[in-house]
Specification:
Chain lengths: ~220, ~220
DNA sequence: AAATACTTTTAGGCTTGTCTAAAAATAAGA
DNA sequence: TCTTATTTTTAGACAAGCCTAAAAGTATTT
């Protein structure tokens, strides 16, 4: 089995990401959106990847990964997230700077390298954005997390992840000093637009928009 | 200035390597040999790189890097060697396993990444094979090193580098426990074929062929 | 159901990077 | 110097990946 090109790997990851979130076939347009390319290019590539047995593809009804494609994609996600941990924990990048670099590092081909990196980082289970890192067998550690807006008034929780990883969003969180591990308690909800007033780390009150809160994952605490 | 493809970068490095060693224009064949490709492909690429102002190229008389090409190549060498240090020092790879991986890592584009890696590794001046690592400005640390066979009988020295980095050679050195930093003293030279008998770390006598000794760089000591 | 909007595919073209085979240039040997 | 060997370039082809424009298919409105 000869290895994939970077382009092929990126397509696999895109199909994986769409299937993971919506649990449905990845549409041509959705893939094009993620990879910043055209629908025409995507059609082209889907045909080729289907030919290689990495995904199922029927014209006009999108693509889903095969077993083999899914394994490869999972391994890419593993590599991507491990590199992100390395960049933040070891090289002290901030969490909004690492995605682009990991996007390149994930394509370096060496299983030994990833094994050793994993060991060096002490087998982390989550990346800097709170996303789970699959182990070498492809198993994800699942976590009982919910979107922040699902909490009732008075409930306490710990922020464990972000739904979106855009630079703008992450920088905003830095600014309001809201990082992973932060303790929050919902103080008040403005029903008009979903704005939330929350207590942060038992020492500060902040107000965040619905747009922000729905992109935060938390784990309830007592 | 838009960035180079991996192929282009590899060609620049090849031209650099040839020019560095022999201090002459890189021939089409020599480049093809290093990059494991055909002379035809090399001719093609040299034309394109010359068009981009990265090297001087005249038909039938090889290529030499321009100032700009030289800067880019030096930076690639820096990246390659820093990654090799990372792989050996941080991830504990052995020195014969790192070249291939660094060959890929060197193409990751992020100046910030290399800066931080350099800092994390404490700005090493030499890579695991004893080759100098240029600093961010492109300056190499030069060292007064000579090939082992140039020592006179009785002279003492420290092994500081290898000329060749083939897996076979490095594994052989591991086997005879000859690593960088080893102290050697020349005991005897067999003029017939240049075989050397040397004392290793003041506690062992070993015999090495001329082929081996000419690939070892040493620094004389008193 | 027909019209309109949107999505997806096809057709055709371009660049990059490779190859083999043949031609041309240079170097080496007689 | 002339001939032969070697090196290098050119010619022509191909796969991967991308693009734009046009055609075809699907979904949504009216
Ligand atoms: Mn990528
Ligand atoms: Mn991430
Ligand atoms: Mn390389
Ligand atoms: Mn090296």
């Amino acid at each position: 089995m000869e290895s994939l090109t970077q382009a092929e790997e990126n397509y696999l990851k895109a199909v994986f990401k769409i299937g993971e979130k919506d649990n449905k076939a990845a549409s041509t347009n959705a893939i094009a959106g993620i990879l910043n390319t055209t629908a025409a290019s995507v059609s082209d590539m889907l045909k080729r990847l289907a030919g290689k047995g990495l995904l199922h593809y029927e014209k006009h009804r999108g693509a889903t990964l095969t077993e083999k494609g899914s394994e490869l994609a999972t391994n890419l996600v593993r590599k991507h997230r491990l590199w992100e941990v390395f960049l933040v924990k070891t090289l002290h990048f901030s969490w909004d700077e690492v995605h682009e670099i990991a996007e390149q590092l994930e394509h370096v081909q060496s299983d030994e390298l990833i094994d050793r990196l994993d060991f060096f980082l002490e087998k982390p289970q989550f990346d800097p954005h709170g996303d789970p890192i699959p182990d070498a067998q492809g198993n994800f550690t699942m976590r009982r997390q919910v979107p922040l807006p699902s909490l009732a008034i008075g409930e306490r929780a710990v922020v464990v992840g972000v739904q979106e990883s855009s630079v703008a969003f992450l920088k905003y969180l830095d600014k309001i000093k809201l990082e992973l591990g932060a303790r929050v308690q919902v103080l008040e909800r403005f029903e008009y637009d979903g704005t939330l007033k929350i207590e942060l780390n038992s020492n500060e009150e902040i107000t965040i928009s619905h747009k922000v809160s729905e992109n935060l994952f938390v784990q309830k605490t007592k």
